[in-house]
Amino acid sequence: MSGKPYDPAREGAEMSFKDRMSYADYLRLDRVLDAQEPLSKAHDELLFIIQHQTSELWMKLAIHEIRSAIRAIHDDELQSAFKMLTRVARIFEQLNSAWDVLRTMTPSEYTEFRGSLGQSSGFQSWQYRAIEFLAGNRNLAMLGPHAHREELVAALEDILAGPSLYDEALLLLARNGFDIGDDGRRTEWRETRAENDKVLAAWKAVYAAPQEHWLLYELAEKLVDFEDYFRRWRFNHVTTVERIIGLKRGTGGTAGVSYLRRMLDVVLFPELWKVRTEL
Description:
Layout: H1 23-27, H2 29-33, H3 45-74, H4 78-102, H5 107-114, H6 126-135, H7 150-160, H8 165-175, H9 197-208, H10 214-245, H11 257-263, H12 270-278
């Protein structure tokens, strides 16, 4: 290495931030980086905390994007919805990658601090619940883990009061002249909808003539892309948990791996997957 050290100030870079907003100020990094408080002396607890905190941040962005996509579909602004749904799929790609980091922790290392978690569990993530409710999986029993926080229940009930992402896609089909039966007349949104043969027939017509129904066809593929990445996230969750704790019960009282495996059978957009067999 030769020559004088590089000085960014010589090219105009700001170097003094007294009484001015800096990078750390804008991002509130003092609050973000002070939010990790391990309860044990175990080396790997910091990894566990950061992995889950960053996942929650990505989920916060996913919720923002899904809500915006729902509004865009409602307003027939489909190009905007496509961009948002593409971003949601990429967010879940990031969430999938996070499991790769957590899987570097061995069962022995997790055992060192597992007792510090008490009854806390990712099963209790209200943001994950919000994503499921926004997508259309509206299992009302899952409000239970949040009953002790009125403001969280209110936020989830606000989601349940309106159409889900898939509901809005189906209403769009109806606005475009497709007969989707009861799904075109719904006014109560709290319950998970039942599969509908008329909806299946509508999507079959879209896929049979994509050039004629291009925007609906593209929306269908964006939804499938989202669920594809969402399923991968769930699968990686199961694999990571089994790799670290085997078949033991989860800290939140669930059956652990067997519970997570049941969640793999939940389908968000059933007719969009069934239509592939029909074509």
